[in-house]
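User: Predict the complex with uridine-5'-diphosphate.
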Amino acid sequence: MLPPQLSYAYLAQLSLAVGALVFLAGLAVLHLVAIVWARLYFYRRLEPLDPEADRLPGVSILKPLVGIDKNVYANLETYFTLEYPRYELLFCLESSEDIVSMVVDTLIEKYPHVDARVFKSPQQHSVNPKVNNMMQGFECAKYDLLLISDSGVRMLPQALADMVRCMGRDVGMVHQMPFTEQRPGFHNVVQSAYFGGTHAKVYITANLVGINCTTGMSCLFRKSILDPLPGGLAYFGRYLAEDFFLSQYVRSRGFRVVLSHYPALQDGSTSVGNLRRRLIRWIKLRSAMIPHVVLLEPFSDCLLSGLMAAWALAFLWPSGVNVYAYFLIHCLAWLLCDYLLMLNCMESPAPFSRLAFVCAWLLCACMSPLNVLCAQCQRGVEWRGRRFRLEWGGVTRELPPVASVAAATAAAAAESADPASQKKVAI
Ligand SMILES: CCCCCCCC/C=C\CCCCCCCC(=O)N[C@@H](CO[C@@H]1OC[C@@H](O)[C@H](O)[C@H]1O)[C@H](O)/C=C/CCCCCCCCCCCCC
Ligand SMILES: O=c1ccn([C@@H]2O[C@H](COP(=O)(O)OP(=O)(O)O)[C@@H](O)[C@H]2O)c(=O)[nH]1
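Assistant: Here is the predicted structure with uridine-5'-diphosphate placed in the model:
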């Protein structure tokens, strides 16, 4: 029988309090490591090798496109001006009527010396529409090195050369950390705060300790690694998170997965509402694939971890700690760490004020736990007008479209078919 002051309830609370403080210390270490690592690693230019000796291999760039994303012309144009001697652009469209083909055709006309092809009729290999789309280019790719590059990403001229140079003999995949292109507008600050803060911290440290966190928005890999798989890339089309499983497969073949020195510059002009929907979709993917990590997600955010630590301190030192003061200092320290990390993910100084960052950061901090909650409340996943159901482990099946989604898709298609609106978005 335990003495009353050592009851089981007390021991349980004591362990929780100590556990919470250890967890918080772990988070602080992740933050500091990410800040230092980003400072030392990002934008480090690898010495250009001797042009004679440095025979860079050709790269086939797969560009899956569907509809018109914001700034699509400017973003796609960056792929025509890469500082790289040998590459081909394989634009994969979902249909010949897709309005984005006008943008692609205009660019191909403007840069006739760039090796580029357009595909417009994907086959239904699998449930993942992005994989179906990319298969058109995958099957015709000239080179062994393949770069998957999403439509909303902008590439710096030197970034492809960097990715290829990172592709050592023992490396099977080189990926870029998702970050944000700097454009005007508060929504852009919110994206920078999220992708340069929480996201960068986890992405960098997970990558450092060898945990698979690769996103497929910009990743280079060797096509030949997929040779043993039936269908090659199509094999991963059974999952919606094809990137996670592709990277896992590359590792299982004994290759290393390496982070590029240049982050992927996503277009930051999407609204905060769209960013939220996107992050909720990603949480649903993670919940299906790695539910144990998703359980930790809310507690690894600033507000919940701060509340948890404040409670732990009040429990362990009831009269020694002012919990309000602690919570305030906790949030300020977190804000400062996120700011430093975000600056280290940027090539040049932030083009927005510190006040704008604080507002964006507060929005992200409040949004994150809500996102996790929302993701657990709705089961289906909506992606570009389609609906899916994820099974445990990540295998996916497509659901029939609901009326609202079908109506939105039809409206978008009607707008695309309208010649007046086509003119507006083409350039
Ligand atoms: C003390 C431990 C704390 C752990 C706390 C974890 C908190 C996580 C918080 C933030 C999440 C950041 C995660 C990083 C990247 C994930 C992004 C993501 O979910 N991407 C998915 C979607 O990508 C798109 O999917 C469709 C595809 O077609 C598109 O091209 C893609 O871009 C992607 O599918 C999923 C990838 C798997 C991510 C696994 C993340 C594992 C995180 C482990 C964290 C452990 C950290 C420990 C460090 C020591
Ligand atoms: O039905 C689809 C959905 C997406 N994509 C492509 O997949 C990539 C990623 O799409 P999105 O940006 O919507 O994904 P997210 O990064 O938000 O997960 C983009 O190049 C899209 O063009 C596609 O080809 N077909």
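The pocket of LYUJ6TKZ (ligand 1) is lined by residues 26-27, 30, 130, 150, 198-199, 202-203, 205-206, 209, 211, 213, 215-217, 241-244, 282, 285-286, 290, 293, 296-297, 300 (CB under 6 Å).
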